Amino acid sequence: MNLLQELNDAVKFIQSQSKLRPTVGLVLGSGLGAFAESLKDAVRIPFGTIPHFPHSTAIGHKGELVMGTCEGVPVALMNGRVHYYEGYTPQQVVFPTRVLGKMGVKIVVMTNAAGAVNVNYKPGELMLITDHINYMGMNPMIGPNEETLGLRFFDMTEPYDPKLREIAEKICWKAGVTARSGVYIAFTGPSYETSAEIRAARVLGADAVGMSTVPEVIAARHMGIRVLGISALTNPAAGVVKRPLHHQEVLDVGEKLKSSLLDVLSKIIVEAAKTA
After folding, report:
1. How far apart are alpha carbons 143 and 129 in whole angstroms?
2. Residue 132 known to be catalytic
3. For residue range 209-253, what is the model confidence (pLDDT) as tens digits?
């Protein structure tokens, strides 16, 4: 079975479960799943029930597609994601993103939990992603190209949409939520980075580090989907402070960010939908 048939199977099943036809998609990172509870008239579809979908195994990722409305705007929400470090191929990692595109999603808000590489950025703040560095040693577009999805060689000059970022900046400012701007660097994980790797990342120009998002953004841009990237800074990166890193810290700060993130995400979705 080829990729297009698998995508069509997944879309057909999802659309049999919900009458909504969203143009806005949202991917929630580690510990950020609370926003999924705010959607109205929600239909929850476990990843495991969707044809050809990978299953999420990471802590803090519920692994369900939620079809619902946010302030009246239809949204397709991925409550959790899959990662390269879980043992999936790059193509499996981006399959859910491709499904969103085949469903008609034109804008996707990618969120993640990230470590602060920039020493001026603090846990509990948000960072709007301006660009990324792919340090994962892979690209999900390697292999045969499906021309109906996108070009073989496609532009990545501005993977993160400036207009969407401007919308998010204004909304965060009005809400009193600290929103930095910066470059996200992706490592494969699952081990946290060494202090030397973080120093190297800082030299390369990174402000935050994580283990996701970049493959999905590449796949989204391949399909012409506009992207807004938001990192929830949950911990200082390795070497910034003299203590070991632990995933529980990520989940704890994600819980503390819940109220501010709920407030700004809903407003961002409403305003972004107007530009779809």
Report:
1. 27
2. no
3. 999 999 999 999 999 999 999 998 988 875 566 666 566 666 666
**What CA dihedral angle connects 113, 262, 75 and 15, to 10 degrees?**
70
Residue of 10, 76, 83, 266 marked active site:
83
Please say if 259 is a catalytic residue. Answer: no
Residue 61 annotated among the catalytic residues of the structure: yes
Q: What is the pTM of this model?
A: 0.94
CA pair distance 203, 136, nearest whole angstrom: 17
Contacts of 60 (CB under 8 A, 6+ apart): 29, 30, 31, 32, 33, 80, 113, 247, 250, 251, 254
Active site residue 247: yes
To the query of whether residue 30 is one of the catalytic residues in this protein, the response is: yes
Q: Is 83 a catalytic residue?
A: yes
Residues with Cβ < 8 Å from 224, sequence gap 6 or more?
Answer: 101, 150
Catalytic, out of 6, 8, 52, 85: 85
For this structure, is 113 an active site residue?
yes
- Residue 272 annotated as catalytic: no
Top-level CATH class of 3-273?
alpha beta
Residues 89-123: tens digit of each pLDDT: 999 999 999 999 999 999 999 999 899 999 999 88
